[in-house]
Amino acid sequence: MPRHPPPDRAVFFLRPELRGGRGLRIACLLAVGGLPLLPAPAAGSEPSLLRPPRFRSEAARFAHNVVADASQPRWSDGSAERQAGWIEEPAEFVLVADATVEEIAPPPPSPEPAHEEALARGPPLLRAPVDNPFDLAAEEEAEDPLWRYPSRPPAGFTGRSSVIPEEAQESSHFVPIEDRWRLGLPAWDRYGQGHPRLFDYPYAPGNWLNPYTQHLLKEDFPIMGQHTFFDMRVASRSIVNWRQVPTPNTPFESTPTPGQYDFYGNPNGFLYLQYYSLAFELNHGDKAFKPNDWRLRVVPVFNHNYLQVNELGVVSPDVQLGDTRYRGFSTIEEWFVESKIADTPDYDFTSVRVGSQPFTTDFRGFIFSDVNRAIRLFGTRLANRDQFNVAIFDQREKDTNSFLNTFDSRGQEILVLNYYRQDFLFPGHTAQTSFIWDHDQKSLQYDKNGFLVRPDPVGIATPHEVNALYAGITTDGHINDHQRPVLRLRA
Question: Are the beta carbons of 242 and 270 closer than 8 angstroms?
């Protein structure tokens, strides 16, 4: 028999053991106090003290707790322990941990069963091995009361989780929570006012009618799995414009105020535009941690507009239509599919987007800014210091009164190439170079009000083709402590 180690040492050793139907396993045996086998991970893997398999006996759980609570447990090859005479059998590894005699003392024996139970089960010597804390044979599994965290609701409206649990809790030391977006938070009434409804209050519980807290329908929680999000936005935009602009009268046809003006009529006018938009987007990614892997976006828009002037021939060439006009229009303003085709360890990416999409080619949108159908390749370089765009647009015709896109082709193609460089020459200074080619096919077009819009009604209105090139350099930002406005150099 091996000699017992000093009372402040607890020696374990590992040995391979073949178990029927379960393959090669590693068993752990405590060499002090005669404690039983302690389960270990599969052969070839590093044993873990934090996530052991299910204990096969109460004594095995006790032995594990001794090691886990001991100070600085460490592995050894067992040579020193065999030379000291603590162990005699060959060992692959020896787990050495500092402990005290009190820590490695065996657990107290289980209480004797009641008299009726003892008569039914026989004498104490014939009791089932599960009642014996030193069940070396590990014939029956002991019940392991797993500790669980108290369940708390997360902030905001989360909806139901679609994450299917794949990992069961095996130990009280580790509680798997696989849906990382719906972690519960303890209730906190920061100001002690009971979360008043009309007060800007942190940690307020959410509901599906409140969009000002975290919400499932505005990308705060995934709608499917861990990375697929849905965003729905409802917007109302109103434009009210009282204006005075030089307005010609119609002296050769009719005028509402005859004899008062020679050429220019009443300059007063009123314009009202009302837009309602619904944006639906489904995307996949890690949100703020990296660009989306893919996106689907559809934005229908509804408009009604009203115009009132004080001269005839403004709302329509037909003076019989008066001086007021009311129209309505609806369309799908944005619709596109986006996919990331490459990324780098420096968080650079390259993506492609196809469909009707918003795009601005320079800092302020002076050269080109529109929402139209296009194929666009874009991305970043040098850890997001540089950005680039390559896009070709096939323009759609605009509605006359709402200025929204129709589904009719305009016969105009635009090619855009631009490149941005941040911290150009000076920190905080951004430079951009761009090249634009505009090909406008010859056409004859009257708008819905009956006015000639293409070609321009100036001189001899003859349909003609337009080819225009633009190359320019723009800068924005500041140089040292001096703010620098936008500077544009173009050819």
Answer: yes
- 39 shares its domain with 159: no
pTM attached to this predicted model = 0.66
Whether residue 214 contacts residue 222, with contact meaning beta carbons closer than 8 Å, is answered with: no
**Are residue 233 and residue 265 in the same domain, yes or no?**
yes
| Statement: residue 127 has pLDDT above 50 | no
Asked if residue 380 belongs to a domain, the reply is yes
Dihedral, 449, 454, 458, 463 alpha carbons, nearest 10: -140
Q: Please check whether residue 196 lies inside any domain of the structure.
A: no
Q: Are residues 349 and 475 in the same domain?
A: yes
User: What is the number of domains present in the chain?
Assistant: 3
The whole-angstrom separation of Cα 13 and Cα 86 is: 10
| Radius of gyration of the CA atoms of the chain, in A | 39
Whether residue 369 sits in one domain with residue 340: yes
Contacts of 25 (CB under 8 A, 6+ apart): 16, 17, 18, 19, 39, 40, 42, 43
Q: What single-letter amino acid sits at 198?
A: L
Per-residue pLDDT of 32-73, as tens digits, reads 333 333 444 444 444 444 444 444 445 445 555 555 555 555
Strands (E), 399-462: 405-421, 429-440, 445-446, 452-454
- Dist CA 355 CA 373 (whole Å): 5
Q: Is residue 200 part of a domain?
A: no
Q: Is the peptide bond before 109 cis (omega within 30 degrees of 0)?
A: no
User: How far apart are alpha carbons 271 and 324 in whole angstroms?
Assistant: 10
The answer to whether 339 and 315 have CB atoms below 8 angstroms apart is no
Cα–Cα distances in angstroms (integers) from residue 438 to residues 313, 333, 364, 375, 467, in the given order? 33, 22, 19, 15, 6
Question: Residue written as tokens 């000699």?
Answer: 3
Report whether pLDDT(318) > 50.
yes
Of 144, 174, 206, which one is at a domain's C-terminal end? 144
Q: Which residues pair with 331 in a beta bridge?
A: 301
Does any domain span residue 222? Answer: no
Query: Domain end: 118, 144, 170, which one?
Result: 144
Which helix (H) or strand (E) segment is 9 a member of? strand 9-19
Element (H, E) at 76: strand 71-76
For residues 161 and 122, membership in a common domain is answered with no
Structural domain including 181 reads 148-188
Tokens of 267: 């300059």
